[in-house]
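Q: I'm writing a short methods note and want an example of a predicted protein-small molecule complex. Could you take the sequence and the SMILES for adenosine-5'-triphosphate and return the bound structure as tokens? Please keep the output block clean; save any remarks for afterwards.
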Amino acid sequence: MSERRPLLAMQQVTQAYSLPRTALFSPPGSFTVLDSIDFDVCAGEAVGLVGESGAGKTTLTRILTGMERPQSGHVLFDGTDIWSADQAQRASFRRAVQMVLQNPRSSLDPRMRVGTALLEPMRSLRIEGDHVKRLHEVLDQVGLDRSALERFPHEFSGGQLQRIAIARALMPNPRVLVADEPVSALDVSIQAQVLNLLKDLVRDLNLGLVFIAHDLSVVAYTTSRVSVIASGRIVEVGQPVELFTRPTAPQTKNLVDAVLTVESGLSGTAL
Ligand SMILES: Nc1ncnc2c1ncn2[C@@H]1O[C@H](COP(=O)(O)OP(=O)(O)OP(=O)(O)O)[C@@H](O)[C@H]1O
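A: Understood, no commentary inside the block.
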């Protein structure tokens, strides 16, 4: 088996937040949100992250994208520790790792034309070049017409808006996309279209995709490897279908059981 060569990796990352003192002279406590986390993604690979609410997914994402500095451990991009990288390496990291958020209706400014919104990362990341050409390339990649550039967010459906949010993330030509619940705000009927788009981008652009979702079937459809996080620790890693049909860790089993409970509840209602 060939050795994995991760593009973006967390190694032994621990993050703790201090808690307020419980009494005047008591020492401040601390709460460990992430405990010795190893997590990575290679180019052309889609990896999933699942875990119940409060397990630490958002904190992991913030650290993986460089928004938050871990208390200990390393975040490596292309083998370089982003927190000891020089300015030029930090700038290329900021371009190379982009996020797609859950709800495009709140992540896109309603008063901004789509064209202006798409150019925003180019401005904030100080990327020079032929921006019009780049806009057209990216619209083609996400399957939107060029007329979209002149329109405002309210003129689009939820699925089209998520395509626009993905287009914006693609503008800086990233090598990794981190998608946090990218389809949970969408109608089930159009979720598959956005998931297929993400899968196509992974394949066609050799992107790394980190995909976070509560819906295990969506994770199984989109990713080839999944990590389960519980109380700040990775408790199980594996191929998603295998892992969700034969979970080993009790926390994975709980996630699977929760889905089965909801599904049987829904079918009960239908009857
Ligand atoms: N800045 C902070 N200070 C103190 N505690 C925090 C801070 N940020 C997060 N936490 C706590 O860390 C834990 C993990 O939070 P996190 O948001 O990473 O979980 P999550 O898995 O993303 O949850 P959800 O799925 O509900 O978004 C929670 O108990 C949260 O209250």
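A: Remarks, as requested: The radius of gyration is 20 Å. The longest strand covers residues 29-41.
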